[in-house]
C-alpha cells in the first residue's frame, strides 16, 4: 500500500514537473500542442511514402510495424482493464490543459504506443534515419504530458508495451512464409496496375 502510494506520488510529481513547464514557458505551448495532436499526420504520410517506394524490404518493415502497433494497442487496452486512471486534468487541480479531450482511461498512452511501435520497428530494421523517429516518439510522449492529458507512467507503459511488441514481431513475422507470400501477391497485382519504377543499380542497393 505504501509502495503504491509512493509510485502514485512519483507519477504526479513527474507530471507536475513537465506540465508546469507550459506555465513557465508559454511560448512553447503551441508547438507542443501541435506535436501532441497533429504529428500523427506526419507519421501516416511517412508510412505511405515508405510503402510506395516499392521496395520489398521497406514493405516488410511497414507491415511489421503496423502489426506491432495492432498488437501493442490490443495489449494496451487489455492492460487498461487491470489498471485505470483518468487524465490528469480530471484528477488534479491547476493542470495546464492545452487540448480538448473527453474524460476516459488514460492508461496507457495510445499516441505513445503508435509512435514507438513504428519508431522502434524502423530502428530494428536498421534504417539510418530511425533514431529520428525514436526521438520523435519520445517527444510525442512528452507532449502528451505537457498538454495535460497523460501521466508519465501512461507514457512509460505505452513505450514498454510497444518495445516488447515491436521486438517480438520483428523476430517472428518476417520469417513466416505467409507474410512473404502476401507481399509477393500484393506486388504482383500492383505491378499489373502500376508500371514498376525504373531503378538504377545504385538505387537498387539502397533502402529508404
Automatic annotation (TrEMBL):
Pfam family, one: PAP2
Segments crossing the lipid bilayer: 32-53, 60-82, 107-125, 132-149, 155-173
InterPro entries: PAP2/HPO (IPR000326), PAP2/HPO_sf (IPR036938), UPP_Pase (IPR033879)
Source domain of life: Bacteria
CDD domains documented for this protein: PAP2_BcrC_like (cd03385)
Annotated keywords: Membrane, Transmembrane, Transmembrane helix
Location of the Phosphatidic acid phosphatase type 2/haloperoxidase domain: 61-170
PANTHER family referenced in this protein's UniProt entry, alphabetically: AT30094P (PTHR14969:SF13), SPHINGOSINE-1-PHOSPHATE PHOSPHOHYDROLASE (PTHR14969)
Protein name as catalogued: Undecaprenyl-diphosphatase
Amino acid at each position: 500500500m505504501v509502495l503504491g502510494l509512493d509510485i502514485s506520488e512519483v507519477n504526479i510529481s513527474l507530471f507536475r514537473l513537465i506540465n508546469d513547464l507550459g506555465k513557465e514557458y508559454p511560448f512553447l505551448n503551441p508547438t507542443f500542442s501541435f506535436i501532441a495532436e497533429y504529428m500523427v499526420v506526419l507519421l501516416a504520410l511517412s508510412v505511405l511514402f515508405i510503402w510506395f517506394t516499392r521496395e520489398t524490404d521497406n514493405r516488410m518493415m511497414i507491415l511489421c510495424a503496423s502489426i506491432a502497433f495492432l498488437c501493442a494497442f490490443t495489449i494496451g487496452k487489455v492492460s487498461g482493464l487491470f489498471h485505470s486512471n483518468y487524465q490528469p486534468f480530471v484528477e488534479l487541480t491547476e493542470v495546464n490543459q492545452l487540448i480538448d479531450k473527453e474524460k476516459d482511461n488514460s492508461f496507457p498512452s495510445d499516441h505513445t504506443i503508435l509512435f514507438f511501435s513504428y519508431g522502434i520497428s524502423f530502428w530494428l530494421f536498421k534504417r539510418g534515419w530511425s533514431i529520428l523517429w525514436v526521438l520523435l516518439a519520445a517527444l510525442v510522449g512528452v507532449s502528451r504530458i505537457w498538454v495535460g492529458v497523460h501521466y508519465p507512467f501512461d507514457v512509460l507503459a505505452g513505450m514498454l508495451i510497444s518495445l516488447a511488441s515491436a521486438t517480438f514481431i520483428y523476430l517472428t513475422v518476417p520469417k513466416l512464409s505467409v507474410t512473404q507470400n502476401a507481399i509477393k501477391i500484393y506486388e504482383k497485382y500492383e505491378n499489373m496496375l502500376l508500371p514498376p519504377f525504373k531503378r538504377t543499380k545504385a538505387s537498387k542497393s539502397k533502402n529508404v
